[in-house]
Amino acid sequence: xxxxxxxxxxxxxxxxxxxxxxxxxxxxxxxxxxxxxxxxxxxxxxxxxxxxxxxxxxxxxxxxxxxxxxxxxxxxxxxxxxxxxxxxxxxxxxxxxxxxxxxxxxxxxxxxxxxxxxxxxxxxxxxxxxxxxxxxxxxxxxxxxxxxxxxxxxxxxxxxxxxxxxxxxxxxxxxxxxxxxxxxxxxxxxxxxxxxxxxxxxxxxxxxxxxxxxxxxxxxxxxxxxxxxxxxxxxxxxxxxxxxxxxxxxxxxxxxxxxxx
Length: 261
Fold this sequence. Notes:
Blueprint: H1 2-9, E1 22-28, E2 31-37, E3 42-44, E4 48-50, H2 54-61, H3 69-76, E5 84-91, E6 99-102, H4 106-117, E7 126-132, E8 135-141, H5 154-169, H6 175-178, E9 179-185, H7 187-194, E10 230-232, H8 246-260
Parallel strand pairs: 4-10
Antiparallel strand pairs: 1-2, 2-3, 5-8, 5-9, 6-7, 7-8
């Protein structure tokens, strides 16, 4: 992100603001006219492109009433069940690996997901770890946004952290002796800190009914929305979050094409 801001700052007519939170997209006569920041400042624009997820953009930032009820219902139905957590381990010295993935078989992955389907942490999760700057950063699947038997309290966070350490230590035993700290970031944290609906980093599940021409919802796969001048350019648009930057590039092409017409 820091590199992107530096690159944008060199372009003529571009102003990049970090930490400026948008609270509302303004609309007049049925067309997007700009945004309002949390500070109260209003920025006018002929085009608004949102990389926030579709539910957050269309149901959270637009005033109620601008969207057709059927369209709003379709957006509300976008499945965003976050099931990935992140665990950051502070280590005193080399843990014995630089990258490590724990996913021995398809059956293992299926069983890992079975727990999450019923609102429980995976007892044997898929783990993808990398070492960087004295830390081990671990992607964890599956940890549901909503737990069936309670909330993500400190005890459950510790349990997930311990589970990750033990899971990695089965393949890198030295890890147990070098861990000095553990931070657990649950899907709930991702939702609260990053504004990700239900903690889903892909802005919506990549299921068969939410991909290709049905992403984000059927009939609206070309980045535009029912509000002229308002576009979606994030992972909730085609082709999803699996190809970094692709949705933004394709949305930019669509916007430039329509602006030129």
